[in-house]
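To the wet lab folks,

You asked to see what we're planning to order before we commit. Fair enough. Below is the target structure as tokens, and below that is the sequence we designed to fit it. If anything looks off to you, flag it before the synthesis order goes out.
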């Protein structure tokens, strides 16, 4: 047993070395990942920076005022604030240089391999006859390499959270398999913990895909069981119950956030966008046919992952023993086919049916990502096939080799011609190189299996592993390498210093092509814009998209006092005055018409719903300096306010300002609305002179508080979401239950050991 543990450790080290080789630009500091920066630079790094700096300041960031004029932060699952790997990174590296985030990418590639290795060690258990270690370690390593460098992971080098969720799939599957086969409560809880880690990693669609695979396997196992189904159902319920309980503190706020975004329900055209076309299936046999990577892709469809995980895994997957029609191999085969049909999206009826029937499916885009499950299944089958290689007859080897060769050649030739017929531009080099490599690898696998595979202690698994690693690293390591620093848009120190020195609270706007859209999050500034993000609040996005030209009343209401613009390119009319030009690429302009963050307004128009509010706010002549549009919420009837500003002294200034809490002193000669250009969102609460008052939705997407009496008032506003409290309570109860159960188990085991002595 100790020998196998040492070999397992060596296997994990081997996977680490392969990962370092795959990411040689990061390893040797010779380049950057991903090409063009992707979400890693534009979305994740700046948000991670905001999280790290907030934690370093002793604040748990529930609200993020730095982008889109403010939005929930901890509730945003893509930020994965509470994912243990991220949380530890934030605490250890609060300044969070970009290279740290690159190493998070590297780590999760290794984690995917280690996770798959663990699963295969479970599926290929150690027998009693002390076999040669290579028969137990090499097939799992083969599966691990195929999975960790498969097309989903390579395509999404820049989508760290997507890969992080995917990396936990095999480990969670292994724990669930042990729970179901052994009917073990401990492994069921362990599977729930692993699924919760995947959930916290922060990609809702991939979490759904992982949970779907686990759920289907549980149903498969329950359905084929002749007895004890009640126990199996209970084991499955415990797995998902633990996962839901441990993640309730992020899931419940996340569901609340999703309701206020454009992702609540997509029409079918949007939900089926980025499907794998039938023509793209040639990508399973070669990643080069249609050009690999964002720079070389030429296929006549939106670039998506096509599922390549090597030719050898396809070959060995076909050699898997499927005799047990109810076992893991058959399930993996069916899972792979099912996921491939879903990944084809609008090209098959299955995806549309799931869109109509399965809850939550209508809120997800990019069906191609389901190819993760196909690659997962193929990687597992490949390891099983390699493990049973000595039991495969030569006849089956050659029949399968010939069949796979015909399928591969037919798919590559026909799909290539189909793509060229659409684009009108041939790419003969892509076809020739792709076909040559695919055929060469397939013939090499057949030769290894035929001439070496029959021997119990042959070199076939070793050579197969070497060929697979060379294939995947050789055809994938260069895909997302960039030799231009993707963080250049964040490197404007003079501009940053100028904006950080301004008294706040105040916002900026970005009209520049060289200033990073999300730089504000990295440097603690506040921007009315931000990077493209699936979970931007829909009402604010709608408002911002309709403000018209910079300088309009609706734009000025946003408190965008400064505008960053390209050198010599004024962002608006003469009301935008240049105030800073010491950066070689950008200038800063002062918006002289910008309104303050908070204002007293005496004239109000009450409307019944958001549609009417939007029309009123954008009606000709509306000016937020003198009026406010208030939306009626349920039975609450907002006061209409007076017709004109009354005579008398007024005053208004901030007493304190922080992202989750601020206070204002307001002196008014008459009842008035205190209107904030702060984005409305449930969970914000307000107090006037210590008494809680309602927050009204003002000017379609913002907040307003009504001051019923003239005089001086202290107004406090604090972000205190009920959804967080409910979720946290559920998570704490789950932790207490798990802790109590673990304590009882240890006590009983200790008591039993004492009695046996």
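Sequence we intend to order:
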């Amino acid at each position: 047993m100790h020998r196998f543990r040492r070999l397992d450790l060596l296997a994990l080290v081997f996977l680490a070395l392969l990962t370092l080789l795959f990411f040689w630009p990061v390893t040797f500091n010779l380049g950057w990942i991903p090409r063009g920066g992707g979400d890693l630079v534009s979305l994740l790094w700046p948000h991670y920076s905001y999280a790290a700096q907030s934690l370093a300041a002793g604040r748990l960031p529930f609200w993020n005022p730095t982008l889109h004029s403010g939005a929930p932060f901890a509730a945003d699952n893509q930020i994965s604030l509470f994912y243990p790997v991220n949380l530890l990174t934030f605490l250890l590296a609060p300044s969070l240089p970009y290279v740290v985030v690159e190493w998070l990418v590297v780590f999760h590639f290794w984690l995917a391999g280690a996770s798959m290795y663990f699963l295969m060690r479970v599926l290929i258990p150690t027998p009693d006859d002390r076999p040669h270690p290579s028969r137990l370690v090499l097939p799992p390593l083969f599966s691990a390499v195929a999975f960790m460098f498969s097309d989903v992971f390579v395509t999404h080098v820049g989508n760290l959270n997507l890969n992080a969720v995917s990396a936990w799939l095999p480990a969670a599957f292994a724990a669930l398999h042990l729970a179901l086969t052994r009917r073990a409560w401990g492994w069921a809880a362990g599977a729930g913990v692993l699924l919760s880690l995947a959930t916290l990693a922060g990609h809702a669609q991939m979490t759904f895909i992982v949970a779907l695979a686990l759920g289907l396997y549980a149903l498969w196992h329950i359905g084929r069981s002749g007895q004890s189904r009640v126990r199996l159902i209970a084991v499955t319920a415990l797995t998902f119950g633990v996962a839901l309980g441990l993640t309730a503190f992020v899931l419940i706020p996340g569901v609340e956030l999703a309701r206020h975004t454009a992702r609540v329900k997509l029409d079918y055209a949007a939900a089926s966008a980025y499907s794998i076309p039938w023509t793209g299936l040639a990508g399973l046999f070669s990643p080069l046919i249609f050009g690999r990577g964002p720079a070389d892709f030429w296929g006549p469809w939106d670039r998506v992952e096509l599922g390549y995980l090597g030719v050898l895994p396809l070959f060995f997957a076909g050699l898997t023993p499927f005799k047990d029609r109810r076992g893991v191999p058959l399930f993996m085969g069916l899972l792979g086919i099912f996921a491939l049909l879903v990944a084809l999206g609008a090209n098959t009826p299955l995806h549309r049916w799931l869109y109509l029937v399965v809850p939550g499916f209508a809120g997800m885009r990019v069906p191609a990502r389901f190819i993760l499950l196909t690659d997962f299944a193929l990687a597992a089958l490949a390891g099983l096939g390699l493990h049973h290689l000595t039991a495969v007859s030569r006849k089956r080897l050659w029949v399968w080799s010939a069949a796979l060769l015909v399928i591969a050649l037919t798919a590559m030739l026909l799909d290539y011609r189909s793509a060229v017929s659409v684009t009108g531009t041939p790419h003969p080099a892509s076809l020739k190189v792709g076909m040559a490599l695919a055929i060469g690898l397939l013939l090499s696998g057949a030769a290894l299996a035929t001439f070496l595979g029959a021997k119990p202690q042959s070199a076939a698994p070793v050579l197969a592993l070497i060929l697979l690693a060379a294939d995947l690293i050789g055809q994938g390591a260069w895909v997302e390498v960039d030799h231009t620093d993707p963080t250049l848009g964040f490197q404007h120190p003079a501009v940053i210093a100028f904006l950080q020195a301004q008294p706040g609270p105040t916002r900026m706007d970005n009209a520049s092509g060289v200033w990073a859209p999300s730089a504000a999050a990295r440097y603690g500034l506040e921007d009315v814009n931000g990077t493209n993000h699936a979970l931007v609040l829909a009402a604010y996005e709608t408002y911002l998209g309709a403000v018209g030209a910079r300088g309009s009343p609706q734009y000025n209401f946003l408190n965008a006092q400064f505008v960053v613009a390209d050198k010599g390119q004024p962002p608006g009319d003469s009301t935008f005055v240049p105030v800073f030009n010491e950066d070689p690429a950008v200038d800063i302009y002062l918006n002289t018409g910008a309104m303050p963050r908070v204002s007293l307004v005496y004239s109000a128009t009450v409307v019944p719903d958001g549609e009417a509010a939007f029309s009123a706010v954008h009606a000709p002549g509306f000016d937020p300096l003198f009026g406010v549009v208030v939306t009626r919420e349920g039975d609450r009837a907002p006061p209409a306010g007076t017709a004109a500003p009354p005579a008398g002294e007024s005053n208004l200034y901030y007493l304190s300002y922080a992202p989750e809490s601020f206070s204002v002193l307001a002196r008014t000669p008459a009842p008035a609305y205190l209107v904030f250009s702060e984005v409305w969102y449930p969970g914000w609460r307000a107090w006037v002179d210590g008494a809680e008052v309602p927050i009204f939705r003002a000017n379609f997407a913002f907040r307003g508080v009504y001051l019923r009496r003239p005089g001086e008032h202290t107004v406090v506003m604090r972000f205190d979401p009920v959804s967080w409290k409910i979720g946290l309570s559920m998570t704490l109860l789950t932790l207490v239950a798990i802790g109590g159960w673990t304590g009882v188990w240890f006590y009983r085991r200790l008591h039993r050991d004492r009695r046996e002595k």
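Structural context that might help your review: The two ends are 25 Å apart (CA to CA). The first strand starts at residue 63 and ends at 64.

Thanks,
Computational group
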